[in-house]
Amino acid sequence: TAGLQIAIDGPASAGKSTVAKLVAKQLHYTYCDTGAMYRALTLAAMQAQVDLKDEAAVLAVLAKITISFKPGEPEQQVFVNEQEVTQAIRQPDVTNNVSTVAALAGVRQQLVRHQQKIAAAGSIVMDGRDIGTAVLPQAPVKIYLVASVAERAQRRYAENIRKGIDTPLTVLQHEIEVRDKKDSTRKVSPLTQAKDAVLVDTTALSIEQVVAKISAITAQKQ
Ligand code: C5P
């Protein structure tokens, strides 16, 4: 049987991409990190030195680039045209600017269309902020992943340390709160739980427990 569409949304650093990748691996589905697309465009726009609030200017950058993914271990590689940007799009300056670019209606329209094409064949795990509400409103499996902000800041801190980025924990917590606020209050498809999404609070759960939960929910739908 053809695989399902699995939509995973939630606030920053709730563990979406970690569990989405593992669920995809377990089910032999494709994983699509939609945040990476917004990040890649943000990086390209920053490199082009355009005003990130200027929709026409950002759309002109988007028109000149192709954002693509290549399989890789431990993570998928992300490309802007021929340039590999996998690490660059996770840098703090991109992270702190991405919500500004993601709030632009024209940007969302185009990236959402791209995401819908990627997901059309099914057998996909897609994570982001608006997958269950806007990108794949018909997805049979929708998960809304949350965790306390203290726990999310702690996880981001540990992840940063592994990457050699040493932003203090209190600063990270503040950045997460600011980004969530921007993502939840924007006009176009703000971050919100879809009515038919299953709420999973990961604060006290291990990665394995979250993956098992999502796999069980998916199995019920197959
Ligand atoms: O998931 P990640 O933290 O990489 O997403 C980066 C940013 O991209 C989010 O804070 C949000 O502004 C934007 N985003 C979005 N819609 C998505 C995925 C990400 O607006 N589906």
TrEMBL record:
| Cellular compartment(s) | Cytoplasm
Instruction: Tell me one GO molecular function of this protein.
Output: kinase activity
Q: Which UniProt keywords apply?
A: ATP-binding, Cytoplasm, Kinase, Nucleotide-binding, Transferase
Positions with a binding annotation for ATP: G10, P11, A12, S13, A14, G15, K16, S17, T18
User: What Pfam families does the record point to?
Assistant: Cytidylate_kin
Family statement: Belongs to the cytidylate kinase family. Type 1 subfamily.
The record's listing under NCBIfam families reads: cmk
What is the protein's name according to its record? Answer: Cytidylate kinase
Taxonomic source organism? Loigolactobacillus jiayinensis
